[in-house]
């Protein structure tokens, strides 16, 4: 009889601890704002734009952005 009470008390305690852990899991803080997260790192490849210039990927989407075509010479002959 004492063994049954001990097992019951042990199971009830374990259940109580499990429920307490679940209740406290909701108190976990949300992820930090985007400004506080690690910076976005893009691969270091390049693309040659139609005007001949090379550009690298730009965050946050890590896409290639070719500059708009211009009528001015950019010092390249």
Total number of helices = 1
Strand order of the largest sheet: 1-2-3
**Largest sheet data:** 3 strands, antiparallel
Unreliable stretches covering 5 or more consecutive residues = 71-77
Helix content: 25-40%
Gross geometry: rod-shaped
Hey, roughly how much beta strand do the residues contain? 5-15%
The total strand number stands at 3
Going by helix content, strand content and strand pairing, the class is: alpha+beta
What is the succession of H and E elements?
HEEE
Radius of gyration: 30 Å
Q: What is the CA-CA span between the terminal residues? A: 97 Å
Mean pLDDT, to the nearest integer, reads 75
What's this, in brief?
The chain is an alpha+beta fold and 77 residues long. It has one helix at residues 2-25, and strands at 46-48, 54-58, 63-64. A three-stranded antiparallel β-sheet has the order 1-2-3, with no helix packed on it.
Features:
77 residues, alpha+beta, three-stranded antiparallel sheet, 1 helix, 3 strands, 31% helix
């Amino acid at each position: 009889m004492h063994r049954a009470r001990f097992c019951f008390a042990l199971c009830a305690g374990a259940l109580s601890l499990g429920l307490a852990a679940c209740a406290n899991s909701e108190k976990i803080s949300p992820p930090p704002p985007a400004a506080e997260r690690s910076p976005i790192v893009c691969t270091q490849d390049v693309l040659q734009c139609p005007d001949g210039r090379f550009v690298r990927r730009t965050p946050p989407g890590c896409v290639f952005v070719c500059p708009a075509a211009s009528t001015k010479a950019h010092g390249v002959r």
